[in-house]
Request: fold
Amino acid sequence: MGIELRKMRDNAGRTTAQAAAVFGLDRTKITQVEKGHYPITAERVRTLAEAFGETDTEYVEALSVMAEDRRKGWWDEYRGFVPQGFLDICEFEHHAKGMYSYQICHPPGPMQSESYSRAIFQDNQVRLTPRDVETRVEQRMRRSEMLMAKGTHPYTAIVHEAALRMQFGGRDVAREQLDWMLELSQLPHVTLRVISFAAGGFKGPGQAIYYAHGPVPRLDTVSYDSMEGPIFLHLTEHLEEYRSVVEQMTDRSLSVEDSRDLIAKIKKEI
Reply:
């Protein structure tokens, strides 16, 4: 919300002081709103949009709906116990109308089995205590439940063959993980496709990408992994660039049926 309001203000060529003057507030309050530290009502969203000359009514209404949804999400239970980036991803998914994930080193978080997730967190670069490991595993399983078992919006996962052959936790855990992915791929809202080694090179192959479709295209969001946690991109030029990357990866991937066959084949080879 804060990012979108800042973009709207920047596009209108207005300062924070001018935005604050619309409500008779101190400009620091607008700054806090734009940083996501302070909520804003749907009525004030519409007022700012009018003041900034924003004419995209569907976009403004989508923002207004988001402003009205002030309920705490299930992920807030983990605030202070898991990295903030993990919570941001959950909120990102909560508002999305469809998701696309590309992974090269391991299957996407929502499609990981409990044992596989535990193995990944135990191998974390910063060594975690057993309690921290279990908290992160629990939070990841809750996230998986929301997107997989209770999912109502399309979820597409494109996984590189390299990720399927990584044996976090050993051979038994790796086999269990592949079985779990095959099971999830049968869900009606889940699409699982694999980019095989034979596909060759393509744009952005070494970067994990998560693209979420918002209520309207302007509210789409891209996330990619970094050592410090997920990085979120919202600018129009970024969205256009990553849409083309997503299309190319989809074109290079195997069909759903061939992807399942390859996963089954890899399981036998492990």
